[in-house]
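User: Hey, quick favor. My workstation is busy. Could you predict this chain's structure for me?
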Amino acid sequence: MNRLGFNDVEERTFIIIFDNKIKMKNILSLLVMVLSVQYCFAQETHVIESAELEIVYSVKEQPHWDTYIFRCGKNVSQYFSQPTLQRYKMLANDDPALFTLSSEEIKDLGTPEYAKKYPLSTGNFDIIYRNLEEGVLKTYSTVFGSKYLIVEDITIPDWTMYEDSTITVLGMECKKATTNFRGRYWEVWYAEDIPISQGPWKLCGLPGMILKANCPKFMLIEATGIKNKNLEPVTFYNYLNYKYTPIDRMEYLKKVHKPGIYPTGDSCETIEIDDTK
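Assistant: No problem, here it is.
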């Protein structure tokens, strides 16, 4: 789809078509009508558990980039786009700085500077929670104002491991593994020094934390920072108290991949594409 079109920046660019003198709450009300957003206060933002590890990942999807956070506790981990979550928080807090940010962004749409200045990536409106105790993975996804909840069993990719192929990431030796998972080929590098069998997005199941993942000609994910002290807790984020509609994973993919999911007539790009196989 057109990565610089209205559909990609979703609510964050849509709001700037209104006069910036209008109060933020009035704009939010208009967004509710235009995007048919439903609210439910049953599951507000709340702490799930204390975090034991946090990893910052750089995501490169030429010509775009983004920054993601992986945070995990004893039983639950989460993975989300930090800039996208920050925008939701700003909107919920009626932060006037959001107008300035969005106004500048819309001015740069269609220019060479846009991709350099503003974070954007496939899946940046998804927040993923992995519950190890229950063996369940939940994805809270937003597609042009529609909110979806995909619940699935944690699936471990069928890995091919290369013990002799190593690189160094953040000073740690990482071993290589490859897989075909959900319609895409992935090369990853995992650190046995971090004995956690998880990774960015839905990648998991290796004898160490995945610190780098490459899907050739699509997406490169690499850890840029790790910390285990003074961490924010693993948190269920829903700053705007959205209501998410439960949907089967394959049904979701077929739905959002249909042309016309956006007003421009485009479909939604997703990381997993196994519905097309």
